[in-house]
Known about the structure:
The chain is of the alpha/beta class. It has helices spanning 2-27, 37-44, 118-129, 142-147, 163-168, 171-179, 215-225, 239-245; strands at residues 66-69, 75-78, 114-116, 134-138, 154-155, 183-184, 196-197, 203-207, 233-236.
Amino acid sequence: xxxxxxxxxxxxxxxxxxxxxxxxxxxxxxxxxxxxxxxxxxxxxxxxxxxxxxxxxxxxxxxxxxxxxxxxxxxxxxxxxxxxxxxxxxxxxxxxxxxxxxxxxxxxxxxxxxxxxxxxxxxxxxxxxxxxxxxxxxxxxxxxxxxxxxxxxxxxxxxxxxxxxxxxxxxxxxxxxxxxxxxxxxxxxxxxxxxxxxxxxxxxxxxxxxxxxxxxxxxxxxxxxxxxxxxxxxxxxxxxxxxxxxxxxxxxxxx
Length: 255
């Protein structure tokens, strides 16, 4: 009887030990799947090393990438992320923000101003931007601009063109206008809206954070109020959100 009792205890201990081991296996954290060597190579590859025939993701059917050079001589290649499993995260992955103030904006800022999409903006960079007749304008505040922006853009924050500043003919407005190619009709006269020559004004493509962002629409309306030619204004409504969703190149201005 004692021997049989010992055998039962041993068998019970073995069963409990097996159950414990099984439980540990069930609760074990699986290591994260590592990227393959090929995937790592895609991530690490310099944009300027890519050849069209190697690329899985073009911008359009006809354009694999766009190379631009800023007036300061900085070169950028604008292309899409080649990792087809890539997903965005952070600010631009959010679907909803409090509305108001972050409500969906109309496709049309003003009937006289053309709204463009990503393909049109790329075309703008290839032509007007590259021949120096156009400027890409990030209308967001500097804190947003410094996080990330579209290559080649300059930061002209929308508060410069607020109603109060426009009505007061604030000096910052004229500083921005000179950057945009506007000149005073008579340099010997004081700055003022009645002393502006828009004949050399550049075509501006303005953007902000996306369809829920009112910063570039406000800047466009301010520019129209002071007489900027509407045919020289373009509204890129998709902004940073859709630019990121499509995996297009972004930079930090300091880089």
